[in-house]
Amino acid sequence: MKYREDRYKNPISALGFGCMRFPKNGLAVDMNETGREIMAAYEAGVNYFDTAYIYPGSEAALGEILARNNIRDKVNIADKLPHYLIKSRGSLDKYFDEHLRRLQTDRIDYYLMHMLNDVSTWDKLCEMGIREWIEEKKKSGQIRYIGFSYHGNTDRFKELVDAYDWDFCQIQYNYMDVSSQAGVEGLRYASSHGLAVIIMEPLRGGKLVTMLPDEARRLFDGNKKGYTPAQWAFRWLWNQPEVTCVLSGMNSMEMLRENVQTASETDVGEFTGEDEAFLQDVVSAINSKVKVGCTGCRYCMPCPHGVDIPGTFAAYNHCFTENKAAGRNDYLMTTAYRKNPTSASQCVKCGACETHCPQHIKIRDMLEEAKGTLETPGYKLFRAGIKVLGLYK
Question: What is the dihedral of CA 294, 295, 299, 303, to 10 degrees?
Answer without folding.
Answer: 40
